[in-house]
Amino acid sequence: MDRGERVRFQRQSFICALGVDTSTFTEMRAQRALAGHALTVSQHGEMFRWLALGIFLTALTISGWRRRRACRMAGAIPRTAEPPLLIASRLLVALPLFGGVLTFIVKPGWMAWAALEVPHWVRWVGVALGFLILPVIDWVLRTLGANVSETVLTKKDHQLVTTGPYRWVRHPLYAMGIVLFMSLGLTAANWFILLWALVALVWVRVVIVPGEEAQLVRVFGDAYQRYRQHAGVLWPRLLSSRERRRAG
């Protein structure tokens, strides 16, 4: 019997001599270990909450600043100018999505019912994606300049932008918005936010993009039709329409 085993044996003998159930000490050690694990999990959850707040506030600051500049330069189109059904659908998608993120940041316990059990590295992927997407959002809005609009309608002196990220994608702002909320959903490890980000993706692709592009075709005509042939909708095309026809 080595020294460590001898010490443990003497401790056990002393405890038995006192008439104390050794299982009680085992349970106490287990409870302390669980308490320590719960504290670690809680600390990590708090850290990810603050990181989500940083990503979300930075995105809102960039967007708000660029939109205010566009408003001063070329005015703004009120959302009430859009069809009522479009406004209603916008609210049905935006309120749960923004509400889920804000609730996680302010009162994370209220969103615990939608928590996902994922490894920490998955949440760190969300954090990295969120911070990486912020300069891209600024790039998109800076490229749009005075053409930033709060609606699917075009401004009086609206210009067709085909430079910067618009060289490859027709609606990069929508794409970056979806990626932003996906990153927040991963950071929060929350299936509700992730699900509603997917709902927003479908809504943008099925409702918003067709309505906005119909307006752009009416304003820019053949120029926009030609632009559509080589630029993707929400992500770059691997081949342009002409190249696909040649390949076929």
- Report the top-level CATH class: Mainly Alpha
The H-and-E topology, N to C, reads as HHHHHHHH
Q: What structural category characterises the helix and strand content? A: mainly alpha
Q: The CATH topology, please?
A: Four Helix Bundle (Hemerythrin (Met), subunit A)
Let me know the largest β-sheet: none
Rg: 27 Å
User: Helix count, per DSSP?
Assistant: 8
Secondary structure: helix percent: over 70%
Overall pLDDT score: 85
Notable traits:
single chain, 248 residues, 8 helices
Helices and strands in order, then pairings?
Layout: H1 3-17, H2 22-74, H3 84-106, H4 120-144, H5 172-188, H6 191-220, H7 222-228, H8 241-247
Helix pairs in contact: 2-3, 2-4, 2-5, 3-6, 4-5, 5-6
Write up what this structure looks like.
The radius of gyration is 27 Å and the shape is elongated. α2 packs across α3, α2 (22-74) packs parallel to α4 (120-144) and α5 runs antiparallel to α6. The protein has 8 helices and no strands. By secondary structure, the chain is mostly helical. It has helices at 3-17, 22-74, 84-106, 120-144, 172-188, 191-220, 222-228, 241-247.
Summarize the structure.
With 248 residues, the protein is an all-alpha fold.
